[in-house]
Amino acid sequence: MTCKTQIPLNGVQPETWIQRFIEAHPRLIHAIRSFTEQNFIVKKRALLTELDLQGWILDIACGKGFILDVVSSAKYLGVDYSEKVLRYAKSLHQKTFIAMDGRALGFHDQSFRNCIAMDVFHHIPDEDFDCFLQEIRRVLKNDGVFLVTDPVKAKLSRDPLSYFFQRFDGGNSFRDPEELIRFLLKYFKIKKQYFDKSGIGTWQIYVLTKS
Ligand SMILES: C[S@@+](CC[C@H](N)C(=O)[O-])C[C@H]1O[C@@H](n2cnc3c(N)ncnc32)[C@H](O)[C@@H]1O
């Protein structure tokens, strides 16, 4: 399998009207997410407990650089494949943000002590997921930590409100924990795994290592 994916010269274009709307209204989307996710309490908790703040942090598919609202690290690098999103991130934080596809990270092997993918995996379809994970494994130091959060796929019968919101999310690849773990175990060991509730949704959180 080849994972060399370049961002097209004219940038990555959103495919659906929902993705276009989300990209065009970052402030509004952040406010809605903050309300429905109870001020991001799950992600904040995970960030504050799981990272080694002495080491470099690679924030993969960083969006607006949300984690910088929570941890202040001098050694932060954010990558995302949306130029528009990165422009917004740069207007908020004096940090380095680079346009890059998560399936082809332009860094040397073992560059980062911490890799983070927060609420990203439901944007990555199955056919791209192996490349995405292989690249993270490659750039993570051997003794590094990979922190993952992602919403659990909501079921209409059990969690109608969350199910409704997931229909209007830009991502189309929400996964059950079993599905996600099947992918993760191909490349990582699970050091810690738990679920946490935040607003209307339930999140799955994984702390992963290479061995
Ligand atoms: C729901 S946002 C999450 C942003 C941020 N991690 C957070 O927690 O606030 C998902 C982000 O993934 C980015 N993204 C999706 N697929 C990507 C890929 N293959 N490479 C890089 N970024 C990607 C999108 O541009 C979007 O900014």
Describe the structure.
There is one protein chain. This protein is an alpha/beta fold and about 210 residues long. It has one domain (about 15-210): Rossmann fold (3-Layer(aba) Sandwich). The chain is built from seven helices and seven strands. The chain has helices at about 15-25, 25-35, 40-50, 85-90, 125-140, 160-165, 175-185, and strands at about 55-60, 75-80, 95-100, 110-120, 140-150, 190-200, 200-210. It has a seven-stranded mixed β-sheet, with helices on both faces. It is globular, with a radius of gyration of 16 Å. The model has no long low-confidence stretch (mean pLDDT about 90). The protein binds S-adenosylmethionine (SAM). S-adenosylmethionine binds near residues 101 and 118.
Number of helices: 7
Main sheet: which strands, in order across? 3-2-1-4-5-7-6
Q: What CATH architecture would you give?
A: 3-Layer(aba) Sandwich
Strand tally is 7
Return the CATH class: Alpha Beta
DSSP helix fraction = 25-40%
Task: Name every ligand kind in the structure.
Answer: S-adenosylmethionine
Percent of residues in beta strands: 15-25%
Number of domains: 1
Task: Describe, in short, the structure shown.
With 211 residues, the protein is α/β, with parallel strands linked by helices.
Descriptors for this entry?
7 helices; binds S-adenosylmethionine; 211 residues; globular; seven-stranded mixed sheet; 24% strand; Rossmann fold; alpha/beta
